[in-house]
Design brief:
With about 210 residues, the chain is mainly alpha-helical. The protein is about 70% helix and about 0% strand.
């Protein structure tokens, strides 16, 4: 996969995070495999490639579709909340990169979360999700910028749901970091809109339909 495709796949990860956060905050639940894949992605600390982080292009399908909708002229099907979360994630990642102390803390807490995952061998185990949420709280939450998640208060006030939201946001921060590492910049989203959209569609076309 070329560098620009890696950029687009990583940016799609940001939008997938935003889509899942909105779904969880509004409905109080998220498909278990979608949640598990995000956790595994966050805790894959030595990936062979960008594609491997998402467990293949199909692992980022929702994000690619969402990114395409946002960049298309119509922009149907994606709420303003999703766009706000995605832009907030990109902004938070930039601020985090400038805080070497918080980046160091994030590295240490990720190592501990990976240990929890190895021990329980279940990405959806409450302790593993909580460990990922703690990574977010000890790093991104310390910034002077907050991503405000809106939704059903009865869901968001549930500690387990709140941990899942933080873990999903961490997945978004990881994706934003990858995007930046691959050369992505915020102004690209406007100036390279058509190229990003075309690449997202080309990546989606590589996903082979499966027969169940």
């Amino acid at each position: 996969m070329d560098a620009f495709s890696n950029q687009v796949l990583s940016l799609a990860g940001v939008f997938q995070s935003a889509l899942y956060v909105e779904r969880l905050a509004r409905n109080g639940s998220l498909d278990g495999e979608d949640m598990a894949r995000c956790i595994r992605s966050v805790l894959n600390l030595n990936p062979e490639s960008v594609e491997a982080i998402y467990e293949g292009i199909e692992g980022n399908q929702a994000g690619l579709e969402g990114l395409g909708k946002v960049l298309s002229k119509r922009g149907d099907g994606v709420s303003q909340e999703v766009v706000r979360y995605a832009m907030g994630i990109l902004h938070a990642q930039r601020k985090l990169m400038n805080r070497s102390d918080l980046m160091e803390t994030l590295g240490k807490t990720l190592d501990r979360a990976a240990d929890q995952y190895r021990y329980f061998d279940d990405p959806l185990h409450e302790a593993v999700v909580a460990a990922c949420a703690n990574c977010y709280q000890e790093s991104v939450s310390k910034l002077n910028f907050r991503i405000r998640v809106m939704g059903n208060p009865s869901y968001l006030q549930n500690p387990q749901t709140a941990d899942k939201v933080r873990a999903l946001l961490l997945f978004g921060i990881r994706s934003a970091h990858l995007w930046h590492q691959q050369g992505g910049r915020r102004w690209h989203i406007l100036m390279k809109r058509n190229r990003i959209n075309n690449t997202a569609q080309a990546l989606l076309e590589q996903i082979k339909p499966t027969i169940h």
